[in-house]
Every structure is written in C-alpha cells, then in structure tokens.
Amino acid sequence: MGRKPLDVEKFVFELINTDDAAQKKEIGKRILDLAYKKDIYPASIHELYMAMGKGEVSGFTVPAINLRAMTYDLARAIFRVAKRNQSGAFIFEIAKSEMGYTAQPPIEYVSVVLAAAIKESYSGPVFIQADHTQAKAKNYKENPEKELDALKAVIADAVEAGFYNIDIDTSTLVDLSKNDLNKQQFDNYDACAKLTQFIRQIQPRGVEVSVGGEIGEVGTKNSTVEDLDAFMTGFNNRLRKGRTGISKISVQTGTSHGGVVLPNGQVAQVKLDFDTLKVISETARKKYGMAGAVQHGASTLPAELFHKFPEVGTAEVHLATEFQNMIYESKHFPADLKAKIYEWLKVNATAEKKEGDSEEQFFYKARKKALGPFKKEIMGLAQSIRDAIAAEVETKFEFLFKQLNAVNNYDIVKKYVTLKRVIWRKREEKAAVIHDGEGAD
User: What predicted TM-score, i.e. pTM, was given to this entire model?
Assistant: First the structure.
C-alpha cells in the first residue's frame, strides 16, 4: 500500500489557527518542503524585470495582488486563472501595515500561498512581495537609524520567510517644502539605498531579491521625470559600488489607497495620469535599465481603464481594496457575521472615523481593521460559502489578467527566472542554496 498523501489544507488551518510563532514556523517549513517537491519555488522577479529594462520583454503589466482575507481561497483562485491563461508573471503581496491589521505575519502569508499552489497543482516560480515597507516620517525625523533598524527587522523576517521581492517605500520622507529636487528627494534616496544594501547583505546566496523604490507617496502630488532623475542620481551615488540596485520605480499618478470615499460609501471616480506613467516608464527603462513604473492604488479604478496600463508600458500594478470589498459585499458573506464585524468596528476602530464622516464612509475605511480579529471566523465559514465568494473574485482576477495582458507569458518567465531551493539555518547566518532549479518546469 502506498502512503496516504499529505493533506495540505490541514496544514493551512493549523497555521491560521495557531498563535504560536514557533509552531507557525514549523508548519511553514513543512509546506515549503512539500512545495519544493512539487517544483514550486518562492522566487524573485528581478531577472524578468531586468529583461524588461533591456527591451527583451514587453507587452504586459504584472498584477501584484494584496490578499487581506481568505488568502488561501483567493490564492487558489489566482493559480487557477494563471493555469487557464498560461500566466507566469503575477505577484502575491502584502504591505507591512497589512501584516499587522490582517494578522498575517510573513511566514503565514508565504506558507498559505504556497499551499494554494500545491492544492491547484501549479508549478514554477511563485513571486511573493513585501509591499510598502514604509518609513514613518515622524519617526525618521526623530531618530533615522532607529526607524531604519525597525524596517530592517521587517525586511529580514520577510526575506527569511520567502519574500524575495521587497518594495521599499521611503517616499514618505520626500520634503516638498524644499525648492531643490535633490533636497526634496535626499532622505528618500538615502534611506532607500541603505535598505537596498541591507537586502543585498541578507538575501540568500543565488537569489537576487527584486527591490523597488518609490519617488512619490500615493495620494500626494503627481510624479515627474525630474523627480525620477533626482532620485536615481542620488540613489546610484549612495549605493555601494558593485551592489545591484532597484528593478522598478513606484510613482504617484492621481490615485489613493482604497480610493476616495463619498458620504454614501461609494468610491469617487479618479482621473489617472497615464501620460506620467508612460514617460516615467520609458525613462526608467532607457536611462536606468529598470522594468518601468509601478502603479499603486489601482483596484478601485474603473474597469475600462485597465487595458491602458500595458499600452503605456506600466511594469506593475498593485491591486488590493476591491478584493476586500468583494468579500464584504458578496451575497454569500453571512449577514450576521458582517453585522458582528460592524458592531466591533463601532467600539474598536473609532480612530478611523474623521469629523463629518457618514457611517457608510466610516465602515468602508475601517472594515479592513477587522480582518485580523475576525480572520479565524472568516476562514471558519463553510467551504461552500468560501468557494462561492472565491468564485466571484476569481472572475475579477481573470478580467484583470486579460486586461493587463498578463497571459501567455509562462514560458517567458521560465526563460528568465532562475529557481533556487533555499534552506535557512538561523537568523545570524545567510541562507544557503542547496539546489538549483532549471527554469520553471
């Protein structure tokens, strides 16, 4: 008699339901070992982005998707979409802030995504990204080194867990009160260079982590080519000679995270500056060898705009809030659980309510903060309920992949992305590569 196959879902629910960090790590190791046996590799998208920077690859925009809730179910849906469409270039991501309020530490997020790949019989590289590894301007002003050390700790945890794509967001340090562009960007490029060097020091041998920089904080003034030049000149001067720099640049084009919420709870229309995306992407590639510009805060944009991102050469688009909204607004999401969550918000998320906000505005902005406290309860819903919600979101994933032309690129990814099996011994030591993969087979 053969051995009974391992039940990866059992691992997932053990992982989600335990609050013990050591136990999470042990379960995560089991899932990772199983993933490697199935030819599933946490990977860096750096090599593909360098090929985009050289003009060898073009025509599609990479979707980077933040999964705040039902991560296992929605990740499975994404892998199903990818398999149907021969897609290889797509990213699972979660921001530093999201890790906190959704109660998804790095090891849990990586492990759940890999378990979803196993369940859907996906194989090849899986790109997992730490979105918005963000400096707090107030903290940085008071003590720069302390704030950078805090970010280094977040980055180290993420890389150790299998996040081989890190978005550094020190755009919060841009000082628009200064007239000189170099002075405006100084703290931004200085901090970004220091954090990039730190990543290069701790990354696993044989893995060149994809690092992104950011020149304009989302929700502030729109970025310009001059901002890019000031940032890159300073960054390259600050980066230690011989170190690999960043592979993409995030810009501000008129969006905001979660969108602008009207009193009735609806999201206002946004006028996106596609010209900015086009010219900065072209400059990033031709002048600095990067993949191009990255668009944040895009999931709440009108559906008819998404085909324009690949048309203007956008390297990557970040998508988050709409998927959270689709879960909450699904006809399948239990009304009693939603009412319970909203009652919890009235007591525990009052800081989210600004003067003059309607109740609808408050709930829309605050409900993300309930995803951590109610994570286990949401994942404890009947499988049939979760499947029905995931099926609705899967339809949206498929639409976005096709609009971004992120289809039929699996073989391209296979050509450029090197797979490495990594084993971590302990924090003080660098990761060791124990096996080299041969492309994305």
Answer: 0.92
